Amino acid sequence: xxxxxxxxxxxxxxxxxxxxxxxxxxxxxxxxxxxxxxxxxxxxxxxxxxxxxxxxxxxxxxxxxxxxxxxxxxxxxxxxxxxxxxxxxxxxxxxxxxxxxxxxxxxxxxxxxxxxxxxxxxxxxxxxxxxxxxxxxxxxxxxxxxxxxxxxxxxxxxxxxxxxxxxxxxxxxxxxxxxxxxxxxxxxxxxxxxxxxxxxxxxxxxxxxxxxxxxxxxxxxxxxxxxxxxxxxxxxxxxxxxxxxxxxxxxxxxxxxxxxxxxxxxxxxxxxxxxxxxxxxxxxxxxxxxxxxxxxxxxxxxxxxxxxxxxxxxxxxxxxxxxxxxxxxxxxxxxxxxxxxxxxxxxxxxxxxxxxxxxxxxxxxxxxxxxxxxxxxxxxxxxxxxxxxxxxxx
Length: 394
Ligand SMILES: [Zn+2]
Known about the structure:
This protein is an alpha+beta fold. The chain contains 17 helices and 17 strands. α13 links the parallel β15 (294-298) and β16.
């Protein structure tokens, strides 16, 4: 049991709650929370599972950290790590364990994920099954990512949920339903006529949903709003599934959204994550830095895609991650590429990925910024944030 907790626990994440860590090669460095230092003298080695301070000399494993920093005994430390790792440990000391006030929200989401899942298997789900099949997403992948189908109906989900005793208050809080437009009516289902992608936390609990339409109608993607259990700027789609593969590859591939993510997974590319907005936030970049020292950005090469690429790139550089940009052929995205040419074909483009600053210069050159003094000046303005981000120290 203790070994399982040690395996599943994440030392970098745990320590990261108490000090700001930045990747430095294979380890992470930051100010020591134990003696309250300011320089980056505190080192965490995620591979070995140890931390060490070069100033005060304290060090140890994942359980030693809460013991030394929070004054816990060993058992409490194990519990503390287990809770964060999503490992359940029965507590003999507590008669009635304190209920998590957010538990009803997790329960509502778990119920919804299960219900969407069953709709995908039902007759009404045939259109969605065909859609996924055409994209090379088979039953095993559907199962792994718990994909589902929200039928084209206004209160189909809400009616069933309410009949199972789930209150509107909870459904509204996680954004599964929306306030009725006319008073006196029941709230209506937020996701309708969409393939459903449950968004999980690292412990595998469903914290939100993404939905994609089957045709070209807009919005193409619709996601749960922020809630007490979901903060979209901090979560990364797929991190729970991919973190092992990202660590092994020492590289995280960053794609635009969950459709690309699932498609790559279905075609044998496992070390991927996707932000739940367009560009990575600083929090998301720091999360990626805990698992990989290198990231390859795999966005569309249209205008919006490039903007997201460079914003994400700067955020990753600031988090201490080396950033490369892969450029796919015009009109292709990761999903379309692996579908038409397979997962192996992607490798060539990843091998050809160039440093983010170099890519920025390439694009400015293509747009002829360096042909005049005023253009060059604007080009330099565009390059400075990236140069700065790369040289930021802890
Ligand atoms: Zn120290």
